[in-house]
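Researcher: Sit down with what I've pasted below and flag anything odd:
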Amino acid sequence: MLAATIAAAFNTLQTILVARNNPPRGLGFLDYLVLQEGSGFSSLVSIVAWRGKVGIVTRLWSLVRLIAIALVPVLNIVVMSK
């Protein structure tokens, strides 16, 4: 249930960022892919560690997704250990 809530939050965030009307106008393609549910652990790690021309915002979104992915099993272990 926690994983579904996190996925829904990222989906809502992605929709809001795509549809915004502020001066940056929308969301970059790589930022969009980072926020997609289908972006796996290995692709997110490669975006964080990539030495190419990747913006800091894209790296931060990828890092946030990695933390969210790792958070679910850690919280399950903590809850089940009591």
